[in-house]
């Protein structure tokens, strides 16, 4: 059997900070001297790690909303990262960083499909693995991942069903039903925590390996196999949250490659290791349903009150308000799609090409309508004018659905207060979707939304959700709701 292995995974992510009405990222003075926080983190983390070739030697996922920004604002960095995909180190991420166990099955499927398709567009291959936002998981989500061809994911050790039997030094299989399973690697808690939160531990990479990694790998597994140490963290800590840690990462992975350099261990991304792992021999492990890596109360951090926020009473009403808007918009979408002979949900699944910036909305909509027309037998050619109005309708509805998906990005619920930009941004996406729906049908979606938001209150300012909504719109120069 081979030597002990060290695998690093970095989850790189920024939310979509664009104003959905204009498509531009508003300046954020708190990120000065940078224009906004994505640019700031790019300068401190994505650029130096790409320049040093660190993406070559670790496993990683770059969230699609970050990848869209990179491709538009730093195309050289976007392409440099893509060039460091070795065919197995990069994995996908559901598109909007949505907490999937809290989403409808249809939204989960769309988010996973968008994530996979986005990955194919950028890296030119199918992903074998997926990083679940906040590692939030339940069995239905894993089942959907398997159905879409995903083979593995990474979870926190406390998400395993039977803590006592878990040995994070080897991967497991999770049975998802129907005779199918997914490989799950549970990361090493102590090593990952040290890298994330203990700057003193990562001042010297050689010392980190000697004092912390090698002891974890000192004993072979009961099966006689060589053990694995898997470190999984946010990618941003390498240079942004912690200065100069891109240098730590470069040094830590400098023995990259099987059988290279250091006599004690191999350093390789998890994907490389799993590629050679005989899957049927992996032991079975269960998972704890509806758990995550950054909330120790399941997924409450994004849906209700837990100890992660001093006063989380605003979180549930926010979710209820957005879910009501989503349901109303979906009803309206189905009603307006039906006469066009187009399945709204497969049209939505395919819209990722537009969202990712690889297809123009006009071209995509024209293709969808042409396919629908050629499928429907006996459809007569209608006039150009009717065609144009159908294209316009479809384009608007898909733009509304895109914002409706975006408003569920986990960031809106993560922090202590809904007066923060992360939550205001979710309200802007909600407004964008609601206003399109109202323009097309006069359904009064925005009025209901504002009513539903008015029951929540920001702990810091005392402003209610309706006032926050008006503030969110005012900040991007949009008119107040009627
Ligand atoms: Zn919590």
Structure description:
By secondary structure, the protein is α/β, with parallel strands linked by helices. The protein folds into two domains: 5-281, 7-stranded beta/alpha barrel; 300-474, no CATH class. Helices cover 45% and strands 8% of the residues. The protein is built from 19 helices and eight strands. Helix 6 (139-147) links the parallel strand 3 and strand 4 (152-155).
**Whole-number mean pLDDT:** 93
Given the C-alpha coordinates, what overall shape results?
globular
CATH topology of the largest domain, which one?
7-stranded beta/alpha barrel
| Number of self-contained structural domains | 2
Q: Note the run of SSEs as H and E.
A: EHHEHHHEHEEEHHEHEHHHHHHHHHH
Percent helix, as a range, is 40-55%
CATH architecture of the largest domain: Alpha-Beta Barrel
Would you count the extended β strands for me? Answer: 8
Calculate Rg over CA atoms: 23 Å
């Amino acid at each position: 059997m081979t030597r002990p292995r060290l695998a690093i995974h970095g989850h790189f992510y920024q939310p979509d900070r664009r104003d959905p009405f204009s498509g531009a990222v508003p300046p954020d003075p708190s990120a000065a001297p940078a224009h906004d926080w994505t640019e700031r983190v790019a300068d401190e983390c994505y650029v130096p790690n790409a320049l040093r070739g660190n993406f070559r030697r670790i496993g990683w996922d770059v969230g699609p909303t970050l990848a869209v920004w990179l491709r538009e604002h730093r195309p050289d960095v976007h392409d440099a990262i893509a060039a460091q995909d070795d065919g197995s180190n990069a994995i996908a991420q559901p598109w909007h960083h949505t907490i999937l166990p809290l989403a409808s099955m249809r939204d989960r499927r769309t988010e996973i499909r968008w994530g996979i398709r986005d990955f194919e567009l950028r890296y030119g291959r199918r992903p074998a693995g997926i990083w679940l936002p906040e590692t939030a998981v339940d069995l239905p989500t894993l089942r959907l991942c398997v159905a879409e061809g995903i083979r593995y994911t990474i979870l926190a050790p406390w998400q395993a069903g039977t803590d006592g039997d878990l040995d994070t030094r080897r991967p497991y299989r999770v049975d998802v039903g129907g005779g199918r399973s997914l490989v799950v690697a549970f990361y090493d808690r102590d090593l990952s925590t040290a890298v994330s939160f203990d700057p003193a531990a990562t001042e010297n990479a050689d010392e980190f390996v000697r004092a912390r990694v090698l002891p974890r790998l000192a004993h072979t597994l009961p099966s006689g196999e060589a053990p694995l140490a898997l470190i999984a963290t946010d990618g941003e800590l390498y240079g942004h949250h912690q200065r100069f840690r891109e240098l730590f990462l470069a040094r830590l992975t400098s023995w990259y490659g099987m059988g290279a350099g250091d006599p004690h261990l191999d350093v390789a991304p998890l994907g490389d290791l799993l590629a050679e792992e005989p899957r049927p021999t992996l032991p079975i492990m269960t998972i704890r349903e509806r758990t995550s890596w950054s909330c120790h109360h399941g997924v409450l951090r994004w849906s209700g009150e837990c100890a992660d926020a001093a006063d989380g009473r605003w979180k549930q009403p926010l979710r209820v308000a957005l879910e009501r808007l989503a349901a109303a918009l979906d009803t309206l979408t189905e009603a307006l799609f039906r006469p066009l002979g187009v399945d709204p949900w497969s049209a939505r699944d395919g819209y990722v090409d537009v969202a990712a910036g690889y297809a123009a909305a006009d071209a995509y909509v024209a293709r969808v309508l042409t396919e629908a027309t050629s499928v429907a037998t006996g459809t007569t050619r209608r006039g150009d004018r009717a065609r144009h109005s159908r294209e316009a309708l479809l384009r608007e509805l898909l733009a509304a659905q895109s914002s409706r998906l975006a408003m569920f990005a986990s960031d809106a619920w993560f922090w202590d207060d809904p007066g923060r930009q992360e939550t205001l941004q979710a309200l802007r996406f909600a407004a964008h979707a609601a206003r399109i729906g109202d323009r097309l049908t006069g359904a009064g979606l925005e009025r209901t939304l504002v009513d539903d938001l008015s029951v929540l209150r920001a702990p810091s300012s005392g402003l209610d959700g309706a006032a926050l909504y008006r503030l969110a719109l005012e900040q991007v120069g949009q008119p107040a709701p009627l």
